[in-house]
């Protein structure tokens, strides 16, 4: 985690595949809003759904898709 100009750069390792994911930059004030209970979709509306999922569950997009793949 690196701080700079009110932004935080996060490097998150997927708990499933243990691969480091690309840096996610979030604003400090938006992190506070999320920690206080605001939904990630609102606090981090500029992030992609995959980036938000990585913050919420620690799961990268590929592993998330594998976990919830349909049996079509």
Describe this structure in words.
Helices cover 39% and strands 15% of the residues. With 72 residues, it is α+β, with helices and mostly antiparallel strands. It has one domain. Strands 1-2-3 form a 3-stranded antiparallel β-sheet.
Write the SSE topology.
Layout: E1 2-4, E2 7-10, E3 24-27, H1 28-35, H2 40-43, H3 49-57, H4 61-67
Features of the shown structure:
alpha+beta; 3 strands
Précis, in short:
The chain has 72 residues and is an alpha+beta fold.
Q: Spell out the helices and strands N to C.
A: EEEHHHH
- Domain count: the total is 1
Average pLDDT figure: 90
Count helical runs.
4
Tell me the major beta sheet: 3 strands, antiparallel
Helical percentage? 25-40%
Query: Proportion of β residues?
Result: 15-25%
- With strands numbered from the N-terminus, the spatial order across the biggest sheet is 1-2-3
Structural class: alpha+beta
Query: Which spans have pLDDT < 50 for at least 5 consecutive residues?
Result: none
What is Rg? 13 Å
Distance between the termini: 40 Å
Shape summary: globular
